[in-house]
Design a protein that fits this description.
This protein has 68 residues and is α+β, with helices and mostly antiparallel strands. The chain has a single domain, classed as Roll (Membrane-bound Lytic Murein Transglycosylase D, Chain A), CATH 3.10.350. 24% of the residues lie in helices and 12% in strands. It contains two helices and two strands. Helix 1 crosses helix 2. The chain is elongated. The two termini are 21 Å apart.
């Protein structure tokens, strides 16, 4: 698992979007960091655990636009 150090004003959905390109992994982030599950807006320098999340390949995109 990796870690992420917050900056002032980070939110769960914003962190999910920064790391994964979508906010749909917000519940996974919260579950991996139970000590901060009541936090809505983070202060700076909080170390969060980032779970490994499999990114699905989209088959609706042409092959040259799909993630490797």
């Amino acid at each position: 698992m990796n870690t992420y150090i917050t900056i002032q004003g980070d939110t769960w959905d914003g962190i999910s979007f920064k790391l994964f390109g979508t906010d749909k992994h917000m519940p996974d982030l919260i579950q991996a960091n139970p000590d901060h599950n009541s936090t809505v807006i983070f202060s700076a320098d909080i170390r969060l655990t980032i779970p490994t999340i499999e990114v699905a390949t989209s088959f609706t995109l042409p092959p040259w636009k799909r993630e490797s």
